[in-house]
Amino acid sequence: MSMYATTPSATLHYAFEVCELSIDELNSMVDTDKFWGMCKSGCVNYEKKWCCPPFSPALKDYVRMWQKIYIIFMRISTSQFDYIKNNYLKIKAGNAILKSRMDSFLRMMSENYGNFISTGSCRLCKPCKCKETLPCAYPTKMTYSLEALGVDVNLLIQSKFSTPLQWYKKGYLPEYTAVVGGLLTNSDLTNEMICNEYKKFDAKKNKGGD
Ligand code: SF4
Questions:
Q1: Ligand 1 pocket test: which of 116, 130, 149 has the largest number of ligand atoms within 8 Å of its C-beta?
Q2: Number of domains in the chain
Q3: Does position 172 have pLDDT exceeding 60, yes or no?
Q4: Best probe residue, ligand 1, of 56, 118, 128, 132 (max atoms within 8 Å of C-beta)
Q5: What is the pTM of this model?
Q6: Is the pLDDT of residue 209 over 60?
Q7: 138: containing domain
Q8: Of 22, 72, 88, 140, whose CB neighbour count within 10 A is largest?
């Protein structure tokens, strides 16, 4: 469905889609060695955050108590960021709008229906206590991303949604940027109910500005 976000600079349109998956299906999309290997070779958060490899758990252990997951896929067209000159900053701005909405919505839904998988690494503390070799400050609230749990997010989106992920490269601005999160639950929810909850959440968010 089509949504909009009001920011001080513009009113931006973005897409919100949801898809239900069984936990078995999600488990079939895991390649921990491959994705943790990519984290190790290319991410500054490797070994620096409690939510990231090698400290994040195996997906099958993390989702053991849940029966299903609602994957949420949000994307925003980069052509709307003409007021930002730098391409990388356009992607960053789009991601910031989507991530903040997705994570706040999923945290709210998880309070009633289960647990959630966030759009990126846990951002509850800055910096993560791991950097100071201290224990996690909020072990019951911290979140993991699908990537940190070893899920092939590209495969997941390709197989369950009609629009694939696009990647930013130096010198190439993708048509859109996207974020992916998930609600783990044992409740009988529907895609329609989640969309309706999101519409209410988004309306409130837009009233308060971004
Ligand atoms: S809650 Fe804080 S200490 Fe724990 S993983 Fe998140 S950022 Fe790190």
A1: 130
A2: 1
A3: yes
A4: 128
A5: 0.93
A6: no
A7: 2-207
A8: 72
